[in-house]
Amino acid sequence: ILKVPRASKFSGSRSMKRLTFLKNKKRLNHELSLVTSYAVRLLALPLLLMLPVMAQAQFDYSVDSNNRVTITGYSGIDQNVVIPSTFDNWPIISIGDGAFSDSPNMRWVTIPSSVTSIGVDAFYYCTALNSVAIPNNAKIGDEAFYYCSVMSSVSFGTNVSIGNRAFFYTGLSS
Predict the structure, then answer these.
(1) Among residues 54, 96, 95, 46, which one has the least CA distance to residue 76?
(2) Helix (H, G, I), strand (E, B) or coil at 100
(3) Which of 52, 70, 86, 163 is the most buried (most CB within 10 A)?
(4) Is 39 strand, coil or helix?
């Protein structure tokens, strides 16, 4: 234990009465690493608990009387967007009108097989959207992918119906 003289840098401190120096530097480093490790874990825990909430917060949605979900909006900035097949165990059955319109960062979107309806202008003006896979039995609304100017790949499931100008002004060649 080292007593600090009154005229030192610590003399104005009310809570510091004495300083303790450890003789073993390895012990000090070990104790500091333990403290740092616990601090990181404590700080990370609330962030990890918030992840599912943050992921769901990207999507706005409505639930009908049969507990089926329609995505009505998207506020994320991800390049690869994966639409989940359920929210709170309710199936996502449709993507609403304009739900993803003007999402400039989105390059790829994965639409789950539970989706049977893609609304009018659902992906309108997603200028970076490159690729999409349309699930079986889906109905694509008018101008759903209108002005997705770099879109170069679309794969269709079976029994898909396509609305007017659904892929107008895209990068598709055939």
Answers:
(1) 54
(2) coil
(3) 70
(4) helix
- Contacts of 100-105 with C-beta under 8 Å, sequence gap 24+, read 100/71, 100/74, 100/126, 101/125, 101/126, 102/126, 103/74, 103/76, 103/129, 104/128, 105/77, 105/78, 105/79
The pair phi, psi for residue 162, each rounded to 5°, is -120, 125
Indicate the SS3 state at residue 36: helix
Q: What is the mean pLDDT of residues 102-130?
A: 96
Pull the structure tokens for residue 116. Answer: 């049977």
The CA distance from 131 to 151, in Å, is: 6
171 pLDDT higher than 60: yes
User: What residue has token string 């104005």?
Assistant: 12
- What distance in Å separates the CA atoms of residue 58 and residue 40, rounded to the nearest whole number? 26
- The residue to which tokens 């690869």 are assigned: 80
